[in-house]
Amino acid sequence: MRVRILACAIWLHCGLVLGAVAQPQLQVPDPVLKGLPFAVTVEGLAPDSGYVLRVEGRTYALTPENGVLRADSVRVARSGRVPIVLERGGQVVARAEARALPGWTSVLPPLLAILIALLFRRVVPALFLGIWLGAWLAADVSLSGLWQGLLDSFDVYVRNALADPDHAAIVLFSLMIGGMVGIISKNGGMQGVVNRIIRWAGDPRRGQLAATVLGLLIFFDDYANTLVVGNTMRPVTDRLRISREKLAYIVDSTAAPVACLAFVTTWIGYEVGLVGTAVAQIPGYDESAYSIFLNSIPYSFYPWLALLFVFAVAWTQRDFGPMYRAELRARTTGQVLGPDARIDEAAAEGREFRPPDDKPHRARNALIPILVLFVSVLGGLYATGEGETLRDIIGSADSYRALMWGSLLGVLSAAALSIGQRILTLDETMEAWYAGLRSMFFAMIILLLAWALSSITEELRTAQYLSSVLSERLAPGLVPALVFVLAAATAFATGTSWGTMGILLPLVVPLAWHVLAASGLHTETEYHHIIYSTVSAVLAGAVWGDHCSPISDTTILSSMASGCDHIEHVRTQLPYALFVGIVAVLLGTLPTGFGWPWWLSMGLSAAVLLLGLRLLGKKVPGAAEPVAE
Fold this sequence. Notes:
The chain has helices at residues 2-21, 108-120, 123-139, 143-163, 165-186, 189-198, 204-217, 222-239, 244-261, 266-279, 289-296, 301-316, 322-333, 364-384, 390-396, 399-420, 426-460, 462-470, 479-494, 497-518, 529-548, 553-562, 566-593, 598-616, and strands at residues 25-27, 32-33, 38-43, 51-55, 58-61, 63-65, 68-74, 80-88, 91-101, 318-319, 618-619. It is α+β, with helices and mostly antiparallel strands. Among the domains are: 23-101, Immunoglobulins (Immunoglobulin-like), CATH 2.60.40.10; 186-261 and 271-352 and 450-619, no CATH class. The strands form three sheets. Strands 2-9-8-4-5 form a five-stranded mixed beta sheet, with no helix packed on it. A four-stranded antiparallel beta sheet has the order 1-3-7-6, with no helix packed on it. The protein has a two-stranded antiparallel ribbon with strand order 10-11. It is a multi-pass membrane protein.
């Protein structure tokens, strides 16, 4: 009995000593933003209502949560090192410091990235400088912090972006899709699809419609679309006296819009990855990134209307502005190029993906891998999802796994068809696959840096700061339209829709959510269309700005593949892109932000476009006889 009493006494004494020695730990975010609420947690204390936090003379109650004490909505009113004191009964128990930055500094990393991209028209350096600035702010605003920020930019933020399993899945899927495109281009499958369509083209209307349909069929990659349609249709449109400017317009205005809208493309992994990064910054929002992307498609007014307008122009044979003059020249004189046109025919051929001339060009060698990819992705979504309705199943599915399964099976089927029919050897198949991968590398670098910049803005709470500044001044319904204009301006100045998406999506989607929250609308699902519309506004605005920009990669490729003078392509396409874009934002994005049904805005926009073409456009007179081959 005495032994038990002695043991208990020793145990109690040790517990008291350890309790006296143990110090509570205050966990304070680093850095915090002046005037913006943040949370402080205290570890090492039993739940006790007697503890309080004191910050700049204000007292904050601590509440137990998951085994720790927590104080929410803590604020500091000045920048610099701010003491945080834990008290009980007027006695100081523990101390910590908050490193407070002015709120506007959190906007500097993405703002610097945008400005550098606008000034120097280079996205990769712009993104990296934005990451470096953000890492410097996160580390310490000092000379040593500047050096540490440079190291952390690559060692911490870029590495963490690549190490994320979902990010890795997106990179692998995108590379595999690029590889599949390389194989089905090299094995002649895509050329076979083209050959079947161009047999139908016998007059200018059918020639333009054939080029447009081809642009829709090659939906899985905008670069492949541009190179294949431009190079293949050029001899046909030349024979039919269709100007090179018109061909370049058709190629450019179908490539990016259809790749932006289709849900199995080289774009989808990139877009879903950015949406997922953006949504991860929204607390309590559990809809999958793939589901958000699918729900955003009806609100992508510019891509839909751009495709409609191409069809309308081709069908009605009406044109206006510089395009009318180009078509009049081609139709009446047979000169498909202007007298001062500068082109490089050799650069337009895309030899890397050119199929062998001595092998059959079978359409099934492209259609079967695409079908395998399509069915595999749908099957993967169904297999990994749960729910009673198809919408619930897709919304809860693991889209990353489904996309990876589909891309793998698509590549394997393309390789099997190529080797099995002896169209390509194993080495040639691997070279074509690698060429397709290589075409995606630059986009993957942009995506990786965009993820890293997004993690910086999340750490600096950029979206919350912007929301605190704008929420009282900005109506939620205006957000998508303003985002569309911002995305269009950024893409126009930088010449890259992908870079624009990478910079803006992780920033503006959380901003839209916080603006909704400030209005008390974030819990009502009927207002979630603002999120969908904001996502689509970035994608659509980026494509619109890309179409208008003379430094856009797809615009340049469209000129090259169509054998058109680049400046003439930009000059003739610009009025069409501006007309469609203005209608899209004024009658589509803006009204739906304030509650209009998307189908009503789409129908009204389409009607205005068709009416405008009827009033502004003129049918091209002159000879319709094809030029002799």
